[in-house]
Amino acid sequence: MIKGKPFVKWAGGKRQVIDELKKYVPEEFDVYYEPFVGGGALLFELSPKKAVISDLNKELINVYSVLCDEEKFKKMCSVLNSYEASHSEKFFYEIRNKDRNKNTFNRLSDYTRAARTIYLNKACFNGLYRVNSKNEFNVPFGKKLKVNTYEGSNLITVSNYLTMNDIKILGVDFEEAVKDAKKGDFVYFDPPYDSDTGTFNSYTEGGFGKDEQRRLAEVFKELDSRGVYVMLSNHNTSLVSELYKDYNFHRIEAKRNINSNGKKRGKIEELIITNY
Ligand SMILES: C[S@@+](CC[C@H](N)C(=O)[O-])C[C@H]1O[C@@H](n2cnc3c(N)ncnc32)[C@H](O)[C@@H]1O
After folding, report:
1. pLDDT category, 97, cuts 50, 70, 90?
2. Which of 77, 201, 218, 220 is least enclosed, having the fewest CB within 10 Å?
3. Percent of the chain surpassing pLDDT 90
4. Which residues 6+ apart lie within 8 Å of 39 measured at CB?
């Protein structure tokens, strides 16, 4: 089977550590849940037949939905082709600033918005998706002279995977996304990282602070008590080790590139926590 791969570069994306992550996936499970799906590295790697995926980032989830509709998917690709041809710094800011006027932005077709999300991801600085408190995309131009916004064969593979299997796509908070998970299902939580120093976590306008990390740990415990297999990735911080002290810790070394300050790039200890 040819597997799809992430079609966007995503902060905290798990492509670089996928082999490590796979080691801790249960051998068998019923429905796969990924409530912080982002670029979907593990989703595509496992390509389960039954899954519920979700992310609070509405623009990203809109791309997944467009990929599930053949006509819209084709239209999105032709918009992307025209964006590639028009690519320049001025054009980037024109597309980026479309979300400054919510009335006109909300009237854009879903496939045009999906093309905008992919284009900005490829053309912005360092492939970040970051918004301010008004939910306006605010990453500067990446200074590339030319951008390749998509790999056609991968998008077709991803689209076939999403449409030919039982994949539910939601754009809701993680707690809501896993509410129907049952004994024997598998939930993989990959939240924005906790940090003792303040790393990037502005994927959505609300951010993801310590209270969100605590709420997530409660949901983890609740799923555990229901007999769901639960796996979670996070950084090894004092809060994380306290919140999950009753579970199993597996340490992996992850190379992270998303910090724009070159000096801060490097190895960070990443944890995989499981209840099995
Ligand atoms: C570390 S990233 C996930 C990366 C993903 N596993 C991958 O391989 O690309 C965390 C994701 O959580 C999403 N997110 C933030 N707050 C959320 C919430 N309350 N509920 C659901 N998703 C949320 C962000 O939009 C972001 O895509």
Report:
1. very high
2. 218
3. 82
4. 6, 7, 8, 9, 10, 13, 15
pLDDT at 1: 80
Residue among 56, 135, 232 to mutate when testing ligand 1 (max atoms within 8 A of CB)? 56
CA of 82 to the centre of ligand 1 (A): 29
* Residue-range domain boundaries for the chain: 15-58+165-274, 63-152
pLDDT of residue 268: 67
Nearest alpha carbon, ligand 1 atom 24: 203
63-152 CATH fold = Adenine-specific Methyltransferase; domain 2 (1.10.1020)
- Comparing CA positions, the residue from 111, 98, 17 lying closest to residue 63 is 111
Query: What is the chain's alpha carbon radius of gyration, rounded to the nearest angstrom?
Result: 19
CATH class of 15-58+165-274: alpha beta
Beta bridge partners of 54: 170
**C-alpha to C-alpha distance for 129 and 122, rounded to whole angstroms:** 10
* Res. 12 pLDDT band, cuts 50 70 90: confident
pLDDT tens, position by position, 141-192: 999 999 999 999 999 999 999 999 999 999 999 999 999 999 999 999 999 9
